[in-house]
Amino acid sequence: MTRLVGAELLKLRTTRTFWALAGSAVGLVLLIVVLTLALDDHLQAPSDVRALLSTAGICGLLTLVLGVVVGAGEYRHGTIASTLLVTPQRLRAVSAAVGACFLGGLAIGLLAAGLTALIALPWLSANDALLPATGGVIEIFLGGALYAALAAALGAAFGALLRNQVSAVVIVLLLILVVDPVVAGLAGDVGKFTLSGLGIAMSGAEGDSDVLPRGVAAAVWSLYALLLTALAAIFTARRDI
User: Fold this and answer.
1) Global confidence as pTM
2) Half-sphere exposure of 118 (CA within 13 A, CB side)
3) Residue from 10, 158, 154 nearest 73 by CA
4) Ramachandran category for residue 128: left, alpha or beta (phi over 0 → left; psi -120 to 50 → alpha)
5) Residue pLDDT, tens place only, 67-110
């Protein structure tokens, strides 16, 4: 299995799409952080500081799209046939792609978190902002990186299930931007289990809000990803390639 994941990672890092989305994710995070710090000289309240530090979690949305593009890309470009010739067992093939996307998303999340820390922490300290405890800061950054990794994994499984890149990306964006807010507004207790609610919980964007604990949110998201991976493997086995 390790070799399969390594092969998928080689595919991932040799495609322009990966580097384009990775650069976009990190660049977006840094742009928001720098603009917020530059435009708000009085950013000192603990809630505002926490929200700023959790900005790194935003890259989870783009790693989700990255996973979808990677998962469905094999079908769009016709490379799935050669992949399944090498690895006929569909669950192993899909799991390897999901695992590679997890590691790729984790790398993007850690890079975004590291650069956010490098820029934001000295800036906030110079402005005498009330920073969370060191453990709290680490939890925020690691939570954001974990969110980016799990988002990429879930996206890969969903892309492999749907096979159509455009449809999969549109559905994911509709879920995040339209369906999740509506569900959260109509049923608050259910909203914490949506993709947006779980992402907020993991990234620590709203630490005092009614969201699941970070570990529980990560476990629920992982269950979603495992379910989609299993479904993708089952449907891939029943389809003509």
Assistant:
1) 0.87
2) 8
3) 158
4) left
5) 999 888 776 655 655 655 556 566 777 888 899 999 999 999 99
